[in-house]
Write a structure and sequence with these properties.
Helix 11 packs antiparallel against helix 15. With about 575 residues, this protein is mostly helical. The strands form six sheets. It has a two-stranded antiparallel ribbon with strand order 1-5. The chain has a two-stranded antiparallel sheet with strand order 2-3. A two-stranded antiparallel ribbon has the order 4-12. It contains 21 helices and twelve strands. Pfam families: SusD-like_3, SusD_RagB.
């Protein structure tokens, strides 16, 4: 149970920032406040905390934190799930890459656009106020400016991953000046603009902060490693990767080396209540429960994704692992992934009369499978039973529409129903568990990726092995709960050449972050989205009829369309992404 001082304050000052349905360019904190009557150090502190709250003010239909819709379902990791294709059909369109309409009302991507710019508005309003406070009257002035610029950069970074062409909005602009900012700037220029805010944060934040949840230099360094990695893969206007910039790759290595952190002892700790803000968590959205506020600050962003047929949860069966994702966890006799042949045969496909599935004969798997996917007959969330609340072995009956989406569930975003972090609001489940934006395993693999692309794959080997070694010791919870011990994972002894190292790196990222959301963005960064996803669809549609018409269109489907209402609002100033 968390009592996060930072966000208790955030709720107390939330009246400064009432949500509204206006366009983000019109959005500003409501009330009678102005720069003149809030420009004090005490009020500035509250405005900063309110800006922190903004980055996690998301919802099921306008996600900001967890990327299960945008990065998992749009990739080969997961299916939409739910009660058939018409259930939240906008996500079905995303899964089918049927995106020729650049607006879907106020659901999902357009709403996420608005929610991110509302968060940016909070940061900019706070910066405008703080910039006017004399240094002598505000000892924390530069520190708080750095935090706010970090928050602003984070929101713009996420918007760029989703939409590519976005306006970068800073503080101190009039309504007219804001409305005149174009979204049509070069890819490199926009990355550098975002980087300016992160670099300011990196140069002005302490390595760590006493108050949980505040940005620090560590987080800024990790974000700069991530940003330079994306920037290194230079894209043309059709989203094709035309070059890989070695200078940017070296920056990835340099910034990654500045990050001081470590891996959790057990992989599962990252996804369990009680381990928030641990050694692996570099930057996370903070949530709380029973925190002294009228309404606890829990996250409902994955509220649709609980097992549907279980009385313990209730609704709604979204975000289900694909057969391809499950197959990816298979290992060979040497305990290594089947880099090229993992999808040649399906695993866990023999359905028994008791609602369980039988593994293939001789099957061995990476233990991260049982941290990531709910599989009939295997313990769910490391439990066989939850006190008196019922059976916790994942069952076929928990699948809401197995005839359409199969029966593999999601594990990481779920918590056991007897967790003190757990809230049920009607049929929807929320928790106070943090959502990590970057964890240390990310940083290790960012660096490994840069090293491989710089032809230094021998240096990448121990980094990838460090991640695999942690996975290898992350088995006891599952075994104690009764999982059959079919685990076999070992470290790589060598990378014989760059091609092998590159495949190993990409596969490791998929296994490590399965169904957490980065998969789609990785594929776009590498310039491999069309090739990988169309190959996935060609095979997967033979197993799942609902994908029969799905096809990924290169040069269009790498990014969402700019919401049409934003183009209309700016009188056509914004440039639409190609293909829409």
């Amino acid at each position: 149970m968390k009592r996060n001082k930072l966000y208790i304050i955030g709720v107390l000052v939330s009246f400064l920032f009432v949500s509204c349905d206006k366009d983000f360019l019109e959005y500003e904190p409501e009330g009678v406040l102005s720069n003149e009557n809030v420009a004090t150090a005490d009020n500035a502190e509250s405005l900063v905390v309110a800006a922190y709250a903004g980055i996690a003010n998301d919802e099921m239909i306008g996600p900001l934190t967890h990327q299960w819709v945008y990065g998992s379902v749009r990739s080969d990791d997961a299916y939409k799930g739910g009660g058939g294709r018409s259930d939240v059909d906008v996500v079905d369109r995303y899964e089918q890459y049927n995106l020729t309409i650049p607006d879907f009302g106020d659901w999902m991507a357009p709403r996420t656009w608005t929610n991110y710019y509302k968060a940016i508005s909070r940061a900019n309003f706070a910066l405008t106020v703080i910039n006017d406070i004399p240094d002598a009257e505000y000892a924390n002035k530069t520190l708080r400016q750095a935090e706010l610029r970090f928050l602003r950069a984070h929101s713009h970074f996420m918007l760029k991953l989703l939409f590519k062409k976005i306006p970068y909005i800073i503080e101190g602009l009039s309504q007219e000046e804001t409305a005149a900012i174009s979204n049509d700037v070069s890819n490199d220029e926009l990355w550098n603009t975002i980087a300016e805010d992160f670099i300011f944060a990196y140069n002005n934040l302490p390595q760590s902060q006493d108050e949980v949840g505040r940005a620090d230099r560590n987080a800024a360094a990790a974000y700069m490693a991530k940003l330079r990695l994306y920037q290194a893969y230079e894209q043309n206007d059709q989203h094709q990767v035309t070059a890989i910039n070695p200078a940017r790759l070296q920056e990835v290595i340099d910034y990654a080396d500045e990050v001081t952190a470590g891996l959790e002892a057990d992989y599962g700790n990252n996804f369990l209540d009680g381990f928030d803000n641990g050694p692996e968590s570099i930057w996370a959205a903070q949530f709380s429960i029973n925190d002294g506020t009228k309404v606890s600050r829990v996250s409902f962003v994955t509220g649709l994704n609980s097992p549907h047929g279980s009385a313990l949860y209730g609704c709604c069966g979204f975000h289900l692992a694909s057969q391809n994702m499950v197959n990816a966890f298979r290992t060979d006799a040497a305990g290594l992934p089947l880099l090229d042949t993992f999808n040649d045969a399906d695993i866990f496909t023999t359905l028994n009369g008791d609602g369980t599935v039988t593994p293939a004969v001789g099957l061995t798997v990476d233990p991260r499978l049982d941290h990531t996917v709910g599989i009939p007959g295997r313990p769910f969330k490391y439990r066989n039973a939850v006190n008196t609340t019922g059976d916790m072995v994942y069952n076929f009956s928990w699948a809401r529409d197995p005839g359409v989406y199969g029966y593999f569930g999601n594990m990481k975003e779920q918590q056991a129903p007897d967790c003190s972090c757990y809230v049920k609001e009607g049929p929807f489940v929320g928790t106070s568990k943090n959502v990590d934006f970057i964890r240390y395993a990310d940083v290790l693999l960012f660096k490994a990726e840069a090293l491989i692309q710089l032809d230094r794959w021998d240096e990448a080997l121990p980094l990838i092995n460090q991640v695999r070694a942690r996975a290898a010791v992350s088995t006891q919870r599952q075994i104690d709960a009764g999982a059959t011990d079919i685990y076999n994972i070992q470290q790589y002894t060598t990378f014989p050449d760059k091609d092998y190292a590159w495949k190993a790196l990409k596969f490791e990222r998929r296994l490590e972050f399965g169904m957490e959301g980065p998969r789609f963005f990785d594929l776009v960064r590498w310039g491999e989205a069309a090739t990988v996803l169309n190959a996935y669809l060609a095979e997967e549609k033979t197993k799942r009829d609902f994908l029969s018409s799905a096809v990924f269109t290169a040069g269009r489907d790498e990014y969402y369309p700019i919401p049409q209402r934003e183009i209309d609002f700016t009188g056509g100033l914004y440039t639409q992404n190609p293909g829409y």
